[in-house]
Hints:
Elements: H1 6-9, H2 14-22, E1 27-28, H3 29-40, H4 48-60, E2 64-68, E3 74-78, H5 80-106
Antiparallel strand pairs: 1-3, 2-3
Amino acid sequence: MPKQDTFETEQLTDAAFYILLALIEPLHGYAIMKNIxxxxxxxxxxxxxxxxxxxxxxxxxxLISQTLLEEGKKRYTLTxxxxxxLRHELKRRETIVEVARRIMQxxxx
Length: 109
């Protein structure tokens, strides 16, 4: 059975979530990686291969758009569809944490 596209199921990987979050402000590729490192405090959390593969998929799914800058760099911008998915994903992750906290408190962990 083929692997389902996480953008269709609206369940993002951590890497995809961080990329969309970083793109609340338009950025080019290297700046996205640095922004994510700054957000998380983890150096190299997303490598170039993962980043550019996901950026390509996100463009194809119209979650982000790209603009070619004069210097030859590509600037990526979150679309309204991407913003909607980011909000949905945040809510989904909050629910996971709430359920986990409740269960752990009930079990005394």
